[in-house]
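Methods — Computational structure assignment.
A single polypeptide chain was analysed. Its primary sequence is given first, followed by the predicted tertiary structure written as structure tokens.
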Amino acid sequence: MTWNGEARTYVLTIPGWALARVPQTRRGRPSAAPGRFDPVLDGRDPLVGAWIELLRGFDEFLASPSSRHSPLGVRHFEQLLIDGLLRSQHHSQQGKLTTR
């Protein structure tokens, strides 16, 4: 793989427990197996593109002084990222989650 000087790479780590909590919250019981995501985000998909923009906004928010004074805001933003990822990126639990 070749990267040019304009390439940007974001690494987002979501703890397994945070993802496992979503099916339990939506279905009332824990998932039997951990979810597996497609390894590539396709930014041409409008839902994925919107999620990537949200991630960039979160990155900017974390770099701002506001994030240090708003831990609750950070947690809400994190939950929004998890929910958005589950709705936009293909994964193994997709058919098992109901929409709200």
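Note: The two ends are 40 Å apart (CA to CA).
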